[in-house]
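for the recovery benchmark. tokens below, seq after
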């Protein structure tokens, strides 16, 4: 518990995050960095950037609701204080991804309608499964749903997006790298805090396994929707012409520009599910495979 207390204290958070890797940043990136030209001037690239950023805002709004809601459900003071730091992290994530929508030219007055129009319905359902546990003040299920399932997914998606943007959009890649560092802390808390609670409450396992299976189903359905709308061969040729060599990146040992979107979808799903199995196994939950959407 001593390690747990110092690793998840507000003091540690202050030193490593606001006074550490976020020091000197502006909305998560270096001051003055801008969205590069093709992402604001090419209507297709801009639309795609808006569409994917909306999903990030939807996911982060869910994380904000969950982490703040779990503060009053937490059984111990150290977890409450840790969740207060996570609440601020998630609020920051909502803010920086919302700011990206503004940087891409979404008028402030249209924010909610743009989010409603683009939000993936399966991602909305994914969030509802988790928030139902939070609303019932179910701390153990809430932490598994948020800090292992939601954030395990976010972590991998952010890493993939970071790889994709590293050469073509330094500003967005910087925004993502601070977020990835935050998410790493959040998944660590999930694993460290929840293992012992599950041992104390083995009767909760079946319900948690069901929640994880439902969330995994909606996550895979979200990926399927997203990649179904992936650029056509023609659009990809245009992107290649626009971004050139810089557009090609490696992730998980594959060159993303040369493989089919369906292959990237499978790679992403497999990477996230492998992580789930590993992390859930560590806290004593057996991963349940969802039906493939
Ligand atoms: Fe987040
Ligand atoms: Fe998070």
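predicted aa per position
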């Amino acid at each position: 518990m001593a390690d747990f207390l110092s690793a998840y204290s507000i003091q540690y958070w202050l030193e490593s995050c606001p006074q550490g890797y976020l020091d000197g940043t502006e909305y998560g990136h270096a001051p003055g960095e801008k969205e590069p030209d093709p992402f604001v001037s090419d209507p297709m690239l801009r639309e795609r950037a808006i569409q994917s950023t909306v999903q990030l805002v939807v996911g982060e709004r869910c994380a904000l609701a969950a982490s703040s809601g779990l503060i009053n459900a937490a059984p111990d003071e150290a977890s409450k204080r840790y969740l207060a730091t996570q609440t601020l992290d998630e609020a920051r994530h909502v803010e920086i991804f919302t700011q990206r929508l503004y940087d891409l030219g979404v008028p402030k007055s249209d924010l909610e309608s743009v989010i409603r129009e683009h939000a993936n319905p399966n991602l909305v359902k994914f969030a509802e499964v988790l928030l139902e546990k939070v609303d019932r003040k179910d701390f153990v299920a809430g932490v598994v749903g948020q800090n292992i399932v939601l954030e395990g997914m976010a972590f991998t998606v952010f890493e993939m997006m970071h790889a994709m943007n590293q050469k073509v959009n330094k500003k967005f890649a910087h925004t993502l790298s601070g977020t990835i560092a935050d998410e790493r802390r959040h998944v660590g808390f999930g694993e460290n805090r929840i293992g012992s609670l599950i041992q104390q409450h083995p009767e909760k396992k079946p319900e948690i396994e069901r929640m994880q299976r439902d969330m995994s189903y909606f996550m895979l359905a979200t990926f399927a929707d997203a990649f179904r709308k992936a650029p056509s061969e023609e659009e990809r040729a245009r992107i290649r012409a626009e971004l050139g060599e810089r557009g090609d990146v490696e992730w998980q040992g594959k060159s993303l520009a040369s493989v089919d979107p369906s292959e990237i979808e499978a790679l992403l799903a497999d990477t996230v599910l492998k992580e789930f199995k590993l992390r859930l196994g560590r806290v004593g939950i057996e991963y349940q495979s969802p039906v493939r959407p």
